Automatic annotation (TrEMBL):
Organism name: Aureimonas glaciei
Name this polypeptide is given: Transposase
């Protein structure tokens, strides 16, 4: 969470200062920045892209039941959309 804040504010403030204020090391931030996304993060990003696309194609009218049905029908890349609920 702290690294996300640093990443969002790095255009306005120096990274070293942000790290000091948030109590993390700059090397820790840069290691986090260079680390590839884990499998779950990658899957979540793909699912989010599918959700945004389906929502856009529905002109913003799909709620969660219709969205889940749409994602299941297109073979959602994640089991998340297939969960009942």
């Amino acid at each position: 969470m702290r690294f996300d804040l640093i990443d969002a504010a790095k255009e306005e403030f120096p990274v070293r200062r942000l790290c000091k204020v948030l109590g993390v090391s700059p090397s820790g931030y840069f290691a986090w920045k260079d680390r590839p996304a884990c499998h779950r993060q990658h899957r979540d990003m793909v699912l989010l892209a599918h959700v945004r696309s389906a929502f856009r194609l529905s002109n913003g009218t799909y709620g969660s039941p219709r969205m889940r049905h749409e994602l299941q029908a297109e073979g959602s890349p994640s089991g998340v959309a297939g969960r009942p609920g």
